[in-house]
Write a structure and sequence with these properties.
The protein is built from nine helices and twelve strands. By secondary structure, the chain is α+β, with helices and mostly antiparallel strands. It is globular and about 60 Å long.
Length: about 280
Amino acid sequence: MVERAVAWSPGHISGYFQRCTDHDGGVTGSIGGGVVITEGVTVEAVPSSSPRVRICCRSPGGSLRITEGSPPVEHLMARLGVQADLTTTCTLPIGAGFGLSAAALLASGTALSALFRLRLSRASIAAEAHAVEVLFRTGLGDVAAELGGGVVVRRTPGINGEILRHRTDDPIWAVSFGPISTRGVLDSEEAMDRIRAAFPGTEPGGLASMVEISRGFAETSQLVTGRVRAALEACDEAGVLASMTMLGEGVFAVGVDAPVVLAPFGHVYRLAVATHGFHLMETGA
């Protein structure tokens, strides 16, 4: 009997995107580009008589912040018809453009499937996670990206969409000033009109061009905040390629000078590009 299951999902920095709808006007996902990162979410699931979600986020200084409850993850449990005590663990800030809501759903679905022997396929877990993301307006393309690793170009929407993945060992550097309401942007027709107009006509061929194209999107979409603007201008002056995390108030950059240039703006996270997507880590009796 399985009494404990642990699963992991990578995070995802979205650089540019465009919402896509189906023929009936319903939101089905997004197209765009970004980078799948090894910093993501680990979920431990154990049986429980009632659903519970505990979120543990470790700060750069080492302190642990624990909060209770996650409506999206609780809704996922209800969709699957199971009850468990889930502990999610991450080291990046939540709601700051690192794709952690999708990562939490993917890792939770994987752990729950193993714990309750649901025998869900990867595609089924991704479909459930994507449906919850769309419902709660927490993301549109992160689930599809986190199916695998690399610098991603999502050409068509949804978890079965066409995705290009470019591999690289180059690190990414990021600072975060805090969250931006993904729901607030997605529900604003004015913002979505600007985003549609800003969507690039070319595709990146790797990490550097991803950042460059993302920067153009950030500027044209007018999503850049004051604090992000200051960090981007410092990067420009130093010749460092940088753009804004979508959707979060933060900056990601590449190049050997990036960590030094970003340091005055807060803690600098060193991120690696993931080589694979979400998966089950272990089970135990």
